[in-house]
């Protein structure tokens, strides 16, 4: 739960500072931060602004206007669908996907697949918290992955 972090402006600024430092040090050229619905929006938009780049949302089905790419995926408790606008990213553009938490990896994996369909270059999947025992990062295969905090 990142709610206490969001309530504390000093802690939240420190979080965005850490993420900004990591992304700047790791990737000299990046086009977009892609945030996952919905907590990824809370982290991704200030990070994108700090980096001076755009933000692209990946949303639950039916929330985005215009033409979209959609993917259905399994969750531990059922199925879900994610969408991205078809023109959100051009082929070859470099992106970092951001969310608050990586558990089983289903949502992050689905979002990565959407971006691959648009022919984006995924530089990294980035989260605040990783639940290592659930092995979600293994689903990402060869996509680089980074988490600030890890819990077994």
UniProtKB/TrEMBL annotation:
Protein name, per record: Adenine phosphoribosyltransferase
GO biological process: adenine salvage; AMP salvage; purine ribonucleoside salvage
CDD domains: PRTases_typeI
HAMAP family: Aden_phosphoribosyltr
EC class name: transferase
Pfam families according to UniProt: Pribosyltran
Catalytic activity: AMP + diphosphate = 5-phospho-alpha-D-ribose 1-diphosphate + adenine
Gene Ontology terms, MF aspect: adenine binding; adenine phosphoribosyltransferase activity; AMP binding
Superkingdom of source: Eukaryota
Known partners and oligomeric status: Homodimer.
Biological role: Catalyzes a salvage reaction resulting in the formation of AMP, that is energically less costly than de novo synthesis.
């Amino acid at each position: 739960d990142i709610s206490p972090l969001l309530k504390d402006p000093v802690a939240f600024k420190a979080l965005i500072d850490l993420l900004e430092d990591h992304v700047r040090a790791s990737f000299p050229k990046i086009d977009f931060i892609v945030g996952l619905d919905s907590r990824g929006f809370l982290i991704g938009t200030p990070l994108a602004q700090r980096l001076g780049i755009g933000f692209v949302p990946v949303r639950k089905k039916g929330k985005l206007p215009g033409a979209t790419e959609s993917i259905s995926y399994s969750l531990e408790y059922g199925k879900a669908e994610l969408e991205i606008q078809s023109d959100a990213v051009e082929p070859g553009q470099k992106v970092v996907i951001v969310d608050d938490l990586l558990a089983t990896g289903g949502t992050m994996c689905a979002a990565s697949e959407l971006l691959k369909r648009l022919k984006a270059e995924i530089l990294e999947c980035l989260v605040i918290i990783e639940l290592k025992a659930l092995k979600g990062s293994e689903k990402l295969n060869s996509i680089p992955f980074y988490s600030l905090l890890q819990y077994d």
